[in-house]
Design brief:
435 residues; mainly alpha; Rubrerythrin, domain 2; three-stranded antiparallel beta sheet
């Protein structure tokens, strides 16, 4: 029985001094109820205060559900463990349309995405303005934002057709732009997409093929990267998705909103953690130095944190991390990498941390970024491309959440308030009279 049928209270009573107000309680299909405070300021003249939004639901959504205590992740109700065995474009269809596609719908979706994978030829000139050692994330932010300069027929967000074509274009072109950012960083020529390859194979070929020889896609590795995309596709109202929603709430075009999401994802506390986690494993260097770094992570005076550990929502094992660990072993096995010292360090670090009371009492577990770096490095990507791959996969989540927000009749521009603790009003003193 869900809360709406039980005798659960329908409202919360707020009492301040000798005044009380009833605040409606809204029920979801699963997960915590919410207290509707939309009228709070009008009724009480007070704001709520929740920096970091630890207790704040910013929107209503039907796309992704996370149960952090149970380590559950559902895309449109389907468990990530089951979807990890589907293919990424099927997951894209599910996230965008809300239902799994029939065979005919899937074939049509694949066809539509495949035929939008090329970018305007003039886009390639943007890249040549960057230094070769520019971080690929800086190139990706710029090139995705620049898409709005080329596709004027998909920036009218009031037109459902244009919203869908913009969504398809974003999903289709992000691998091409990501591969171009990689090729540019290593001084190799761009590789055009091929329509007879599936999404993941096309991406691997655009990254790793060279004009001088045929490139044969390894199906095990292509399957692995496709699954990695599925794991990263969406994750409810995380920092970058909230950024996309806030940017979109002003009516900004979808390409600019996705560029804003990419910029937010770049931070080491968010999508940049996969790059930071691999660097951390390299800095630890050997299993016998793990205790030193565990102590540093626990030391309040040391800013060091175990990258790839902990999560705002998961207070249990991130279900994606388990699948990522399995994928890591699959890739290393396929490539014949028997003893990757960083993997040995990661496994031992996880074992020690999960026994240490500091991590246990704070419910800090490996998250999706803990094993992804080792896997992506084994696949041939430099650490600077790790967050680019995260952004590539999360683009469908961002555009799906953007579309849901635009199509929500109750949506308004997001405009939070604040607790002001600055100077009270005072008069200007001309400089000649200042002491
Ligand atoms: C992603 O939101 C999402 O869904 C994100 C994501 C997605 O798919 O979109 O899942 C992707 O961003 C995963 C997280 C990747 N980031 C990292 O791995 C960076 C390392 N992790 C931490 O920085 C941290 O755990 C966060 C940022 C992920 C979560 O931070 P919170 O929720 O604000 O937690 P907190 O900083 O308040 O920490 C609570 C306590 C603190 O100790 P006390 O002050 O209570 O004594 O736990 C400690 C923290 O010091 N802590 C850590 C730690 N993470 C938290 N201590 C050591 N190492 C860590 N990694």
């Amino acid at each position: 029985m869900d809360a709406s049928q039980s005798n659960a209270p329908k409202s919360a009573t707020l009492t301040i001094g000798d005044e009380s107000w009833e605040l409606p309680i809204l029920n979801g299909t699963i997960g915590p109820d919410v207290i509707d405070i939309a009228k709070l300021y009008g009724q009480t003249g007070k704001f709520t205060y929740d920096p970091g939004f630890t207790s704040t639901a910013s929107c209503e959504s039907q796309i992704t559900y996370i149960d952090g205590d149970e380590g559950v992740l559902l895309y449109r109700g389907y468990p990530i463990e089951q979807l990890a065995e589907s293919d990424f474009l099927e997951t894209c269809y599910l996230l965008l349309y809300g239902e799994l596609p029939t065979a005919a719908q899937k074939a049509d979706f694949d066809y539509r995405v495949t035929r939008h994978t090329m970018v305007h030829e003039q886009m390639s000139r943007f890249f040549h303005g960057f230094r070769r050692d520019a971080h690929p994330m800086s190139v990706l932010v710029a090139s995705v934002g620049a898409l709005s300069a080329f596709y004027h027929d998909s920036t009218d967000i009031s037109d459902p057709q244009q919203r869908m074509i913009a969504s398809i274009r974003m999903i289709a072109k992000i691998p091409t732009l990501a591969a171009m950012a990689y090729k540019y960083s290593i001084g190799q020529p761009f590789v055009y997409p091929k329509n007879d390859l599936d999404y993941a194979s096309n991406f691997l070929r655009m990254c790793f093929s060279v004009p001088c020889e045929e490139y044969k896609v390894n199906p095990i590795l292509s399957r692995a990267i496709d699954r990695i995309f599925i794991l990263h596709a969406d994750h409810e109202q995380n920092a970058s998705t909230s950024t996309v929603r806030l940017a979109g709430s002003s009516g900004a075009n979808p390409f600019a909103c996705i560029a804003a999401g990419i910029a937010c994802l770049w931070g080491p506390a968010h999508g940049g953690a996969n790059e930071a986690a691999l660097k951390m494993l390299g800095e630890i260097g050997s299993v016998d130095r793990i205790p030193e770094f565990i102590n540093r992570a626990k030391d309040k005076n040391d800013p060091f944190r175990l990258m790839g550990f902990g999560h705002r929502v998961y207070k249990n094992y991130d279900p994606r991390a388990k699948i990522m660990q399995r994928t890591c072993h699959e890739v290393l096995g396929e490539l014949g990498i028997k003893d990757d010292p960083l993997l040995d360090i990661a496994i031992e670090l996880e074992r020690i941390a999960l026994q240490d009371e500091y991590f246990v009492e704070r419910k800090l577990y490996p998250n999706i970024d803990f094993y992804s770096g080792i896997t992506l490095r084994a696949l041939g990507f430099p650490t600077s491309m790790f967050t680019v791959l995260f952004a590539l996969a999360r683009t469908v989540g961002w555009i799906g959440q953007w579309k849901e927000m635009i199509e929500d009749p109750s949506q308004r521009i997001g405009r939070p308030r604040q607790l002001y603790t600055g100077a009270t009003q005072r008069d200007y003193v001309p400089i000649a009279r200042r002491k």
